[in-house]
Amino acid sequence: MREPFSFKKRLLSFRYALRGIYFFFSEQHNARIHAVAAIAAIALGFWLEINRTEWCIITICIAGVFAMEMINTAIEYLADVVSPEQNPKIGKLKDIAAGAVLVFSFAALICGLLIFGFNLIEKLK
Questions:
Q1: pTM of this prediction exceeds 0.85
Q2: Average pLDDT over residues 58-67
Q3: Mean pLDDT (whole number) for 9-24
Q4: What percentage of the chain has pLDDT greater than the value 90?
């Protein structure tokens, strides 16, 4: 049987999610590195006056990198609970999750270079 809809429970779920974001930024060094890169990208976007479509792409790239890093962090925490001792399969799992972050980060970098590079060339003409 389904539980009836509860607005209070939905608000609590936001609180848990916000707490997870807080933990991510307060405990993970990579989160702070990505935050600095995101702030730089946003500042550059304002300076270069990128268009709406470019802002959408930059926003998706920033959010995607953060989301991938958060998923990677969650996988690492879970793996450490499931198998606190060294385990080659857990090691592969962690490496694959970290690789997913790297793949998305490279794609975001390419998008940033294309958007900012062409806009910078135009601005400097």
A1: yes
A2: 98
A3: 92
A4: 87
Pinpoint the alpha helices (H) of the chain. Answer: 7-27, 29-48, 52-82, 88-124
Among left, alpha and beta (phi > 0; psi -120 to 50; other), residue 3 is beta
d(CA 77, CA 69): 12
- Report the alpha-carbon distance of residue 7 to residue 34 in Å, rounded: 33
The residue count for the chain: 125
Instruction: Say if residues 25 and 31 touch (Cβ distance below 8 Å).
Output: yes
Distance (Å, rounded) from C-alpha 59 to C-alpha 42? Answer: 9
- Residue 50 near residue 112 (C-beta atoms within 8 A): no
Residue listed under structure tokens 């990579």: 30
Give the angle subtended at the CA of 12 by the CAs of 22 and 72, to the nearest 5°: 40
